[in-house]
Specification:
This protein is mainly α and 128 residues long. The protein is built from 6 helices and 3 strands. It has a 3-stranded antiparallel β-sheet. It is globular. This is DNA-binding transcriptional regulator, MarR family.
Length: 128
């Protein structure tokens, strides 16, 4: 699965890593996360997230937003440009998988996604 994701990411933008795409996908689904939340989801250190997010900020895909309630907290938020890159990646994924013979109904796709989410949840629980 990782090699599939890496292959797709390289087809879209050789300058972004799989981890950076993962951050974009997280932010596209929820809009804002703290670096700690991203580090936990990626199972990496805060310094690794800082390094990854610095690159995304420089590209204009992510911006830093200070918390309104805790001045020590900084949120990462996806920009319009970041949303566009994420949409392009998803579109490219659909194009590349279109002819692979996956003839799943919407219900089957939902079940597959739910199954993967349960597997990931259990893996995360086992790693704690």
């Amino acid at each position: 699965m990782n090699s599939l994701v890496v292959g797709f990411s390289k087809l879209l933008d050789n300058d972004l890593t799989t981890s950076q795409y993962f951050i974009l996908q997280m932010l596209a689904s929820e809009n804002m996360y703290t670096s700690s939340e991203i580090a936990s989801a990626l199972d990496v250190t805060l310094s690794a997230v800082t390094n990854l997010s610095n690159k995304l900020v420089r590209k204009g895909y992510v911006e830093r937003i200070p918390s309104q309630t805790d001045r020590r907290s900084i949120y990462l938020k996806i920009t319009e440009q970041g949303l566009n890159v994420n949409a392009q990646m998803l579109e490219r994924y659909k194009e590349l998988t279109d002819g692979l013979g996956f003839d799943f109904s919407e219900q089957e796709v939902d079940l597959l996604i739910a199954s993967y989410e349960r597997m990931i949840e259990r893996l995360q629980q086992n790693n704690q």
